[in-house]
Amino acid sequence: MVMELDLGTARPLLEAWLREDIGHGDVTTGAVIPAGMLGRARIEAREPAVVAGLPLAGLCFEIVASTPLSWEAKVTDGSEVEAGEVLAVVEGPLGAILTAERTALNLLGHLSGIATLTRRFVDAIAGSSTKIVDTRKTTPGLRIFEKYAVRTGGGANHRFGLDDAILIKDNHIHAAGGITQAVTRARDNAPHVAKIEIEVENSGQLVEAIEAGADIVMLDNMSPQEVRDAVDATAGRAMLEVSGGVDLGNVAAYAAVGPDLISVGALTHSAPRTDVALEVER
């Protein structure tokens, strides 16, 4: 089951984005559409997709409308849809519908694109015990929505922000003076319940990280064979995460050698936007 969106948290963000688009007023709609005119429109998928963001799209219309407006989702987030399928129907003040249209479609298309790409990665490793996870390579201001879209597509979330977990990267290691020093300092200063993850680039660093007491080791830009060797060498003493250089063409090869996690930044930073459209019904 997909974790629900917190629309209370989302609302002020949507309000700000709508203000950015509307400015002092939608002059086109104001000039063309009579005040008080009612209408009905449907939102359609123009290509196959996994849908994500329908509650946000509906909230966009609700925010703009000054009078009651009807929003009916025809599918749920996480549904796989075909080209031409109706995702939702909105009915009410036509001016508000047209004013909110672009912001609603931008969010729905962007998040559905992320969910669709995530589902492709998840399906590519079906049958393995490895999980597909996202990264912090998200759009500023959109992280809560983009990570929601990853979950909607069947993936899992890595840490949400810097305050979520300890992840020691190469610059931390260099500044600390080495892997052992970095893990030791983290262990000394972290809460006792915190897990410590560290990034390594070769088998020697992997051994040092495990001996230093790391809970999770990120294997950075290693080949599938190198990951297989790392899985054998670790023998369950730490969780292993593959990161870097993973795409749809090789993700199955990585999953086949047994890492616990595969993190894919492209899920959020490079997902093609799903083509969705709003059509007013006469």
Could you name the key traits of this structure?
282 residues, TIM Barrel, 4-stranded antiparallel sheet, Aldehyde Oxidoreductase, domain 3, 11 helices, alpha/beta, single chain
Describe this structure in words.
With 282 residues, the protein is an alpha/beta fold. It folds into two domains: 7-122 and 271-281, Alpha-Beta Complex (Aldehyde Oxidoreductase, domain 3), CATH 3.90.1170; 125-269, TIM Barrel (Alpha-Beta Barrel), CATH 3.20.20. It has helices at residues 7-22, 27-32, 54-64, 94-124, 143-152, 170-176, 179-189, 203-212, 224-234, 251-256, 266-269, and strands at residues 38-45, 49-50, 70-73, 80-81, 86-93, 131-133, 166-168, 196-200, 216-220, 239-243, 261-263, 276-281. The strands form three sheets. The protein has a six-stranded parallel beta sheet with strand order 6-11-10-9-8-7. A four-stranded antiparallel beta sheet has the order 3-5-1-12, with helices on one face. It has a two-stranded antiparallel ribbon with strand order 2-4. Helix 6 (170-176) packs across helix 7, helix 7 packs parallel to helix 8 and helix 8 (203-212) runs parallel beside helix 9 (224-234). The longest helix has 31 residues, at 94-124. The chain starts with 6 loop residues before the first helix and ends with a strand.
